[in-house]
Amino acid sequence: MSILEVKNLTKTFGGLTANNDVSMAVEKNSITAVIGPNGAGKTTFFNMITGVYQPTSGSILLENEILVGLKPHEVCKKGIARTFQNIRLFNEMAVLENVMVGMHTHLRAGLFGILFNLPGIRKEEKVSEIKAYQLLEYVGLADLLNEKACNLSYGAQRRLEIARALAAGPKVLLLDEPAAGMNPKETKELTQLIKKMRDEFNLTVILIEHDMKLVMEISEHIVVLDHGEKIAEGKPEDIRKNPKVIEAYLGSGAVHAG
């Protein structure tokens, strides 16, 4: 059963076509990887799904509900959260506060309640603190809850960004190059965390990743983009030996040599 359906998605910037007629269906509770060489249009694809860019044409459906036309915070409220290729944390805020920010789309506090510090608002804030702490425990950062985000190691910042995304209570979690800059130990721990999140949070995970070892180990379905177009999709074992994929990554000479 598909939870997310993307049909004929195209995005142009002036005379440049970043994505051209890309379609995919993502099964509920699956882990899907979107791969391709640099400049293949992967992040643009994520940006359209999350409302950062509006597609030039095509449709995006989350559980048969139309997402095209919604703003990023509205897409998040519908059930899609994400991390970014370049980590985007509030560097001067505490680790706990960063996670609490991820809950903003589901909080009832209005400006009036915040200004006058009403009892209901105080209670909601306390509940948010508890939930944020639990998520930090989950990703292994509970002992750093009062540390500024900018003081965390690179791998810890990646996990903090994941905790903040989980705080939104998503149905679908998009991870944009989550293993970028990680050492082998951190990558192994990330692989285990992604599998654990999928199972325990009942999540559907879609990731962009260049670490092919991670992709082949964790993915159940892979979509390959090149120059903005989908050139292949299927199970990892099929993608590994696909001539079009080999050519996109290694050049036509590698196909002939193989």
TrEMBL record:
Residue ranges occupied by any ABC transporter domain in the UniProt entry: 4-252
Q: Which GO terms describe its biological process?
A: D-alanine transmembrane transport; L-alanine transport; L-isoleucine import across plasma membrane; L-valine import across plasma membrane
Check the record and name the PROSITE patterns matching this protein.
ABC_TRANSPORTER_2
Keywords attached to this Swiss-Prot or TrEMBL record, sorted alphabetically, are: ATP-binding, Nucleotide-binding, Transport
- The name under which this protein is listed is ABC transporter ATP-binding protein
Q: Name one GO molecular function term.
A: L-isoleucine transmembrane transporter activity
What is a single cellular component term in the Gene Ontology annotation? plasma membrane
Family annotation (InterPro entries): AAA+_ATPase, ABC_AA/LPS_Transport, ABC_transporter-like_ATP-bd, BCA_ABC_TP_C, P-loop_NTPase
Task: Output the superkingdom of the source species.
Answer: Bacteria
What PANTHER family does this protein map onto? AMINO ACID ABC TRANSPORTER ATP-BINDING PROTEIN, CONSERVED COMPONENT OF ABC TRANSPORTER FOR NATURAL AMINO ACIDS-RELATED
